[in-house]
């Protein structure tokens, strides 16, 4: 069950990265 949740989160992360990748990258760069 935990493995399923992990895979689901990984897929969701990929979609989020594709949809708002630039915003996420800027946020990470601003933190550093």
Fold and architecture overview:
The chain contains one helix and no strands. It is mainly alpha-helical and 32 residues long. The protein has one domain (1-32). The termini are far apart. The mean pLDDT is 84.
Provide a quick synopsis of the model.
The protein has 32 residues and is mainly α. It has one helix and no strands. The longest helix has 30 residues, at 2-31.
Write the layout of secondary structure elements.
Layout: H1 2-31
> Runs with pLDDT <50, length 5+?
none
Order of SSEs: H
- Radius of gyration over alpha carbons? 12 Å
Q: Given the helix and strand composition, which structural class is it?
A: mainly alpha
Number of strands: 0
- Percent helix among the residues? over 70%
Overall residue-averaged pLDDT value: 84
Largest sheet: none
Task: Please describe the structure with a list of short key phrases separated by commas or semicolons.
mainly alpha, 32 residues, elongated
């Amino acid at each position: 069950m935990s493995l399923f949740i992990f895979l689901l989160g990984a897929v969701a992360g990929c979609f989020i990265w594709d949809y708002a990748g630039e915003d996420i990258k800027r946020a990470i760069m601003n933190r550093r």
